[in-house]
Amino acid sequence: MSETLDSMYVSIQNGRVPDNWQKVGYNSLKPLGPWHADLLDRVEMFRLWLEDGQPNAYWLSGFFFPQGFMTGCL
Question: Is the dihedral of CA 68, 72, 73, 74 positive or negative?
Fold first, then answer.
């Protein structure tokens, strides 16, 4: 097993988000369980936006970079 996989396995066992996931995911201080639930909520938000069109209200904290979204809206 590689060092990366071993580190990921230990992080998952300890309920932490693995470092290699944090590099490509969003910044969060949440433990693994709530982080994963939040990730699924974010994916669902973007899926609904794509399939159903623009929502009436936006979940700003669901964006990876909400400041960029707000700047684009201006």
Answer: positive
